[in-house]
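If you are new to this repository, start here. Below is one unmodified record pulled from the training split, so you can see the exact layout before writing a loader.
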Amino acid sequence: MLYRGARILILDEPTAVLTPQEADVLFTTLRAMVAEGRTVIFISHKLDEVMAVSDRVTVLRGGKTVGTVNTKESSTRDLARLMVGREVVFNRVERSVAADASAVVLSLESVSALDDRGNTALNDVSLTVGRGEIVGVAGVSGNGQRELAEVIAGMRAGSVGTISVNGQTVQTGRVRKSISAGIAHVPEDRLHTGLAPSHSVQDNLVLKSYRSSPISKLTVLVQKMIRSNAEQLVEKYDVKTPSTETPVRLLSGGNVQKVLLAREFSTDPRVLVAASPTRGLDVGAIESVRARLVEAADRGVGVLLISEDLEEILSLADRVLVMYEGRIVGNVPAESANREMLGLLMGGDRKSTR
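And here is the target side for that same chain:
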């Protein structure tokens, strides 16, 4: 763009594929460009990045401008308040129930898998998740995180290795086998992979239970039970929808994610694989989703949280794994992890934990 003489540069979530160190270099470059007289519009949901790089911030809510502030006269808390309309503070989440890493609910042993082009995406991956434990998986986008989630969820076959839940081996590449084993999955693409966007809220909420009673009897769907199930889950998970018959594509991103979480949690899972569960959501929805993940862990669910947002991982995880080029290159207790260490591991520097 610069080679073509651009004077105005619009960047939409430009740090999604960068380590923290690389993001800092980008910010330095952007400041140099501004000093040369260029204009930069930086679009991001990461408030710390907005504060680090901008001169002024305009906050949008519901497609409308709700405020513009000078960065030097504001804070992330002020921006969050503008985004949601109330006070929102993200701190390290205090767990009400201690995780038990020794009671392994999910185990991967030497798992490898190919990507959509037939190249190796996962290379000899071994990991465990304990009962009630939140294990974060950090990494720059495209280092095998998506394939890891899909292999565990049964959406992709592994080429070698074994996956087990509560000590029982689960066949890869078979979604029903994974569901039966007690694996719940919140995919990156919540609207198209996780849900059927043109179908109603109530239909989406029974996509994993429509084969069994009381949702169906003798292979016939019981509409009364489908509607009742939806009404209960909509109330429990505070889904804002005109009705349970509204297509999910008409809901906001936060409410779409609540529908997905409500369906997955209603199956009473042993393991939850959550891939970028708050990506693209406003800070109010992020707060709600994170609270649900912690609630699940407190009930004894083993949570594998895959995210490119290090602040999210550091605020939720009991333990952090780092992926680089399809391998696990770091396994760090959350209390001793920091952005700098994880950033180096994400860039392939395995010496950063020594």
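Two things worth knowing about this chain: The CA atoms of residues 138 and 158 lie 21 Å apart. The mean pLDDT is 90.
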